[in-house]
Amino acid sequence: MSAQLRLVSPRHVNPTVPVRPTNAALRSREYLTAKEVEKLSDTARRDGRYGHRDATLILIAFRHGLRAKETAELEWSQVEFSRSASLHVRRAKNGKASVHPLRGDEIRALRELRRQFPDSAFVFTTERDGPFTPDAINRLIKRIGERAGFDFPVHAHMLRHACGYALANAGHDTRAIQDWLGHRSIQHTVRYTELNPARFKDFWRD
Question: Based on C-alpha coordinates, what's the Rg of the chain?
Answer without folding.
Answer: 23
